[in-house]
Amino acid sequence: MDNRRFFSFLIYFFAFTYIFNTFIAPKLFPPPPPEVAQEPADEDVLEVEEKIAEAGEAAPVDAPPVDDKPAVHPNKDVILGSLDPASGYFLQVQLTSLGAAIDSVQLTDPKFKELKDETQQVTVVGTNTTDDKTFTTAVKRIDDQLKKYKLTLENISWEVAESDADHATFTFESPDHKLRVTKTYQVVKTNGSPEELQQAFLDQPAGFTIQLDLTVTNLSAEPGSVTYELQGPVGIVLENSDHSRKYRDIKVEFEGDDDAVTLGGKAVEDLYTKHLKEGQESGIVMTESQVRTKLAQADAWTGSFRYVGIDVQFFAGLVAPLDERPVEEQLLDKWIERTYPVMIQKNTETLAKSDISFRMRSTLLDLAPSGAQGGADSVTHKFAFFVGPKRSVLLDPPPLEATQVLDYGWFGPVARVMHWILEKLYRMGLPYVFAIIGLTALVRGCMFPISRKQAIMAAKQKALAPRLAELKLKYGEDKEKFARAQMELWRKHGVNPLGGCLPAFIQLPVFIGLYTCLNSAVDLRLSKFLWIENLAAPDALASMPQLPFLGNEFNLLPCISVALFLVQQKMFMPPPTDDQTAMTQKMMNMMTIVMGVMFWHVPAGLCMYFICSSAWGIAERKLLGADKMSTELPTVVVKDPDAEPKRKPGFFGKLMDAVQEAQKKAEDAQKNAGKTPDKDNRPKGNNKKKNDKKNKYNKKKTDTDGGVKDENQ
Question: How far apart (Å, rounded) are the C-alpha atoms in residues 65 and 352?
Fold first, then answer.
């Protein structure tokens, strides 16, 4: 019983420590945000382009020759795909000629609405308020020529060569007419009936993929070399940030033996702070571009990645090279030489919520003279850009094979099985809340043999608690005799003191697997039940005054969860037998209430699982009749351990006997310390005890013979 309480205390202690350090401490004691040097703002891009257009033939004195002036193209937006679910498109992609970039990406599936405005489809990419855009491209040879106009290839308007609902092509020619960059975006359309399209939304990754073809062409008669830099996804949507513990993370998985990488907003800011401090120590106030240069030099990933992207709780934007060469050749001749993280917009209150991204720098591309045979005067790199929900059926197939995006933690295989069952129940037509109840019933049903054994063992310990109290009074301070009597009592009733803890440890992987599964199940988002508007967020039954940590919303489900936890604890734990056990139980009750406070921001779907599981456990205990069985235990008289005939002990009994024997030897050695042994290497005290026993025996024998005889006789 003591061991069971001890193990329970350890579980509660480590759980509370982890939750406090991970969730409470960062909110109560946030680190002071470091100051980041800002780069001086340039003139507005449109004003600069208007100046160039007005200049006409009269170029500025310090400008390059008229022929080297960049072409001016009007800004133009292009729409790919559609938001109509019957159109066959899974995405609507808004492109902009300004940098030939992706301005935003929305999902077509009717289930994916905006949390704050359910009349609009969710925007997964492009929610940032900065000027950064996804897939803007920098080419140093061209940027050096545009620098005099305070322009770059990333903020100048490209020419829209062609466009339709499926694809769009942008081109830009360098001012010296020696280099041309072409970018083509393409989306896939799926044909089928409304039922087939609904199924395709669930398991067809091609519909959520945007293909980018980037081509660099040499227009001169001389060979040349060039590199480009591609901006990764920008403005990945961050929802329910006040209650979620999952923010934007950079995820990278590599070909070969390199380990996967996960980097959050705080880690990216730490890298910025490190380089800013290094600059201050050298007397330099570094600009944003200088810090990025340092990041590219010192903190880049140089492995050949299989994919790199940004993920949040339910969605992800992942980039994968569409390189058809064998993996061995890809590792020897990489397309991307280095990838490094960048800060798009820092959140000064919570660094983990910052908008982060990455940039990909290509290897040196060698271009043959224009018109060379075999197309050697140009190089084309193709990329797949996945924008969609985090479902394993969408992420697991090539080219992504993004196993780390659905990060289930230590018990990933268990969580994947739970997630698969949950999706199957949901696709059978069950509302998501009933799918959770069904999953809970299925799991608890499979765990019934273990739960039954745990309940019976707890009931026996609870019934034996008064007898243990009697034994403690009987033996007082003699802990050795009390322990032996306690073990004998447990043996007679078939009680294993570890029997109540072992099932809990066996159930731990299942519990954590279910927790992580429900925390990342995208179909939980905006699922409704009774007063609950979103099972992926707290239930928010009513408003209340603003409270520290709790906020201004009253959530009923965490209160129900804590109440059921306390009922379970009262039913399962034996009554206290002394002040120490009473204090332990009070501490566990307090920690249960603290755990309830931690549940305040837990999604309603997870609370539903806890409530269903606790209710199942209570009903299981009642149906088993464990309490009645505990009162019907036969009366067993436990004799003095020294007078009880020895039985062949089990493993645990042997272990306890070995501990007691070692303790006894240690006590004997301490008593005999400092005494001089006799010639037989035995302590004199022991010989004296034997002589005393011998004298008593002789005296008794003499008395029985009829009297005391003279020693001389």
Answer: 48
Lookup result for tokens 């999604």: 603
Using a 10 angstrom Cβ sphere, with 0-12 exposed, 13-18 middle and 19 or more buried, the burial of residue 357 is buried
Q: Is the pLDDT of residue 518 over 80?
A: no
Half-sphere exposure (Cβ direction) of 488: Cα atoms closer than 13 Å: 19
The answer on pLDDT for 544 being more than 50 is yes
Burial of 419 (0-12, 13-18, 19+ CB in 10 A): buried
Instruction: Answer yes or no: are the C-beta atoms of 405 and 396 closer than 8 Å.
Output: no
- The structure tokens listed for 678 are 């006799």
Interatomic CA distance for residues 32 and 265, integer angstroms: 15
CB 373 within 8 A of CB 296: no
Does the pTM of the predicted model rise above 0.70?
A: yes
**Pairwise CA distance, residues 133 & 713, whole Å:** 120
Q: How far apart are CA 656 and CA 658, in angstroms?
A: 5
Contacts of 688 (CB under 8 A, 6+ apart): none
User: In Å, how far are 99, 100, 167, 678 from 92, measured between CA atoms?
Assistant: 19, 16, 12, 98
CA distance 451 to 626: 11
List Cβ neighbours of 372 (8 Å cut-off, separation of 6 or more): none
446-453 mean pLDDT: 78
Q: Give yes or no for a contact between 264 and 248, defined as CB atoms under 8 angstroms apart.
A: yes
> Do residues 543 and 531 make contact, with C-beta atoms less than 8 angstroms apart?
no
In whole numbers, what is the pLDDT of the chain averaged over residues?
79
User: Is pLDDT larger for residue 76 or for residue 521?
Assistant: 76
Residue, of 492 and 239, whose pLDDT is higher: 239
* Under 8 Å between Cβ of 112 and 122: yes
How sure is the predictor about 96, in pLDDT bands with cuts at 50, 70 and 90? very high
Give the alpha-carbon dihedral of 574, 577, 579, 584, to 10 degrees.
-20
Contacts 24+ apart (CB under 8 A), 76-82: 76/157, 76/160, 77/103, 78/160, 78/163, 78/168, 79/165, 80/165, 80/166, 80/167, 80/168, 80/185, 80/186, 80/187, 80/210, 81/108, 81/165, 81/187, 81/189, 82/108, 82/165
**Is the model more confident about 671 or about 521?**
521
Q: Which residues pair with 250 in a beta bridge?
A: 263, 310
Rounded Cα–Cα distance for residues 137 and 595 (Å): 49
Consecutive H or E run containing 55: helix 45-55
- 158 burial (CB, 10 Å; 0-12 / 13-18 / 19+) is buried
Give the DSSP per-residue string, 277-301: HHHHHTT----HHHHHHHHHHHS-B
Domains of the chain: 2-21+424-631 (no CATH), 31-37+63-404 (2.70.98.90)
For residue 339, the cross-strand partners are 301, 360
**Residue pLDDT, tens place only, 590-624:** 887 887 787 888 888 888 888 888 888 888 877 77
Say what the pLDDT of residue 302 is.
93
